């Protein structure tokens, strides 16, 4: 617990949640929706009011600096979260509700009584009885992903500015747009950011620290057939669509998303298009071990070869493209990034649970852009849905972790 400190996370989460910041995947601009700037501008003015140097750039990035007060040369840390919310669920007219000292009963949301947040569906809630829980009202998501992260970083900044006795190095704050549509770091100016190590605040359960994510490629297989007039096609036509359909049936079941978990990778067809002469299937390939991606591609190649043997005259081409990589490859070279975080968790009285992400993160991309950047919990749960919730106590615990984290880095410098 931070002594006598009145946290502002709940009040901030309630205020930031009502600002519609839904990202727009159909737009080419950055930020993809102008309304994200409503929150970014508010954050700039709040940081300024704290006396923090801050700038909003033309792409919607907020860069801020809390000056260090250590006499040592301490690595510059960056704390990062995203202002946008996922387009999969409405983020307009969000009405956040604070359920003080939640008693464990099902939370029936008032605007749509069919939306019920229960510990049966969300077992993590069983650990949160007695906490203050924030939810939406039934029509929308809450946007704790990632306004919980923003509230935590803002509260942390305020705390640090009040406590000049806490010794730390320079700290940068980065708020990004468009994380939910995969463009969160497209236009980040790493030179301007000028940080050695970073942490995103965008994780779930209290105590979790994520330093591993999938490595990812896309892979496209195109089958070529032979066209002929269907009335006179006997012995001539080879229908590429049928070749492709056969190929799909050969995919190993145990390597599909619906049959894998934890550290298991998968091969997943995401779209099919085509006609008689040519038919194409696009896959996403995923594994925590990057070299396994080429094994997955080899497997698809072998299955395609096996397939065309059944259809004389058919052919195929295969190609793949890198998407993103497991940040663990970068973090392995800088073990102090994870170790210092774990130490900060410990000093905050919580166990550090290292978890992997079965997807990509902005932190992974930042890691490969030169700033190793694992992900710290915020308490955001049930994300991208009307059942999204966050515990205020979890957010406050994350603030405490950050306060300890900057001190661990300073002491170990
Ligand atoms: Zn997020």
Structural features, described:
This protein has 413 residues and is of the alpha+beta class. 29% of the residues lie in helices and 23% in strands. It has ten helices and 17 strands. It has helices at 9-17, 36-49, 144-162, 190-193, 240-249, 291-309, 328-331, 335-347, 362-368, 392-411; strands at residues 53-56, 62-66, 77-82, 97-99, 107-108, 116-117, 133-135, 171-176, 197-203, 208-213, 215-224, 266-274, 278-287, 315-324, 353-357, 375-377, 389-391. The strands form four sheets. Strands 1-2-8-3-9-16-10-15 form an eight-stranded mixed beta sheet, sandwiched between helices. The chain starts with 8 loop residues before the first helix and ends with a helix. The model has no long low-confidence stretch (mean pLDDT 97). The chain binds zinc ion (ZN). Zinc ion binds at residues 82, 145-146, 179, 202.
CATH architecture of the largest domain: 3-Layer(aba) Sandwich
**CATH homologous superfamily of the largest domain?**
Zn peptidases
- Give the CA-CA distance, first to last residue: 25 Å
Strand content: 15-25%
List ligands, each type once: zinc ion
Biggest pleated sheet: 8 strands, mixed
What structural class is derived from the secondary structure elements? Answer: alpha+beta
Q: How many β-strands, per DSSP?
A: 17
The top level CATH class name of the largest domain:
Alpha Beta
Rg on CA atoms, Å: 24 Å
**Low-pLDDT stretches:** none
Number of domains: 2
User: Counting H and I runs of at least 4 residues, what is the number of helices?
Assistant: 10
What level of helicity do the residues show?
25-40%
């Amino acid at each position: 617990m931070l002594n006598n400190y009145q946290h502002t996370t709940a009040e901030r989460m309630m205020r930031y949640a009502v600002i519609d910041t839904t990202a727009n995947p159909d737009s080419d601009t950055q930020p993809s929706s102008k309304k994200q700037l409503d929150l970014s501008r508010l954050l700039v003015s709040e940081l300024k009011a704290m006396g923090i140097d801050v700038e909003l750039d033309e792409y919607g990035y907020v860069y801020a600096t809390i000056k260090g007060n250590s006499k040592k040369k301490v690595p510059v840390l960056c704390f990062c979260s995203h202002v946008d919310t996922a387009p999969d669920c409405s983020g307009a007219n969000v009405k956040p509700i604070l359920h003080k000292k939640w008693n464990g009963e099902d939370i029936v949301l008032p605007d749509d009584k069919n939306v019920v947040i229960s510990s049966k569906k969300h077992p993590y809630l069983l650990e949160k009885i007695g906490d203050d829980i924030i939810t939406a009202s039934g029509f929308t998501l809450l946007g704790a992903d990632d306004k919980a992260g923003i509230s935590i970083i803002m509260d942390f900044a305020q705390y640090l500015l009040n406590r000049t006795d806490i010794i730390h190095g320079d700290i940068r704050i980065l708020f990004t747009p468009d994380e939910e549509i995969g463009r969160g770091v497209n236009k980040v100016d790493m030179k301007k950011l000028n940080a050695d190590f970073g942490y995103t605040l965008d994780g779930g359960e209290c105590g979790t620290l994520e330093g591993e994510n999938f490595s990812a490629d896309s892979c496209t297989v195109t089958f070529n057939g032979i066209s002929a007039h269907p009335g006179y096609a006997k012995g001539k036509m080879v229908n590429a669509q049928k070749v492709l359909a056969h190929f799909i049936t050969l995919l190993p079941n145990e390597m599909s998303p619906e049959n894998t978990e934890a550290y298991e990778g998968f091969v997943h067809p995401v779209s099919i298009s085509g006609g008689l002469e040519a038919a194409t299937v696009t896959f996403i390939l995923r594994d925590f071990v990057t070299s396994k991606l080429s094994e997955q591609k080899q497997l698809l190649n072998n299955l395609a070869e096996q397939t065309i043997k059944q259809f004389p005259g058919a052919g195929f081409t295969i190609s793949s493209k890198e998407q993103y990589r497991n940040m663990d490859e970068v973090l392995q070279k800088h073990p102090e990034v994870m170790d210092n975080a774990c130490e900060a968790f410990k000093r905050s009285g919580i166990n550090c649970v290292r978890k992997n992400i079965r997807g990509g993160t902005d932190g992974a991309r930042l890691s490969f852009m030169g700033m190793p950047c694992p992900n710290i919990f915020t308490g955001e749960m049930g994300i991208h849905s009307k059942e999204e919730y966050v515990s205020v106590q979890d957010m406050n615990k994350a603030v405490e972790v950050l306060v300890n984290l900057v001190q661990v880095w300073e002491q170990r410098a």
